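In keeping with the milestone schedule agreed at the kick-off meeting, the structural modelling team has produced records for the first pair of proteins. Each record is given below as a sequence line and a structure-token line. The laboratory manager (R.T.) confirmed that both were archived under the project's standard naming scheme.
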Amino acid sequence: IHLVESGGGQVQAGGSLRLSCAASGVSVGHAVMRWYRRAPGKQFEEVAYITTPGEITHYLNAVRDRFIISRDNGKNIVELQMNNLQPEDSARYHCTADIASGKYWGRGTEVTVSS
């Protein structure tokens, strides 16, 4: 099982990025897919998740109304649309897949937001 994140980069405050998590060896439609982030010197934070079945989504309060998690079963990817980015959103973002056999992590993609 492999998860590969992409879409990170450097943006100014107020800008947007769209992260993508490409999965292989697991169907994103049959897993609870999550995005985590970790800023330097800080703990991991769960940013958002989307369940299966039911497509229920949940967000960290700090990103609610700015970030949107979505899933494309045909492409087998999960995306995180991030709008109105702020410097405190700077972190390495990882996607994970929760299935019966365990929790699988990608290596992450770096997001840097300058003020």
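The second protein of the pair:
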Amino acid sequence: VQLRESGPGLVKPSTTLSLTCTVSGEEITRGYVVWTWIRQSPGKGLEWLGVITYDGSTNYNPSLKSRTSISRDTSQNQFSLQLTSVAPDDTAVYYCATLVGGIRGQGTQVTVSL
């Protein structure tokens, strides 16, 4: 299984960050597989953002729930992250991953700045 994140590396404050994870080697609709977005900021640990399950159900980090949305495109075998009203504190390396098994993409740096 391979995951690859894509999206803009620079996002302006107060706008929406949008990232896509393309999955190969596994169907995102396969039973009981849970897909997740996580991020890591300088000086901070890994922060879990949310998940989307094989049947499209979602669950989010309570501290970010009001700004986070995860969706999927089963025809493209992709799932996506949207984070609204971003601020410099949202600057991080963003990863898509499997919740179990520790398979993740290489990560993509997102910087929130003017």
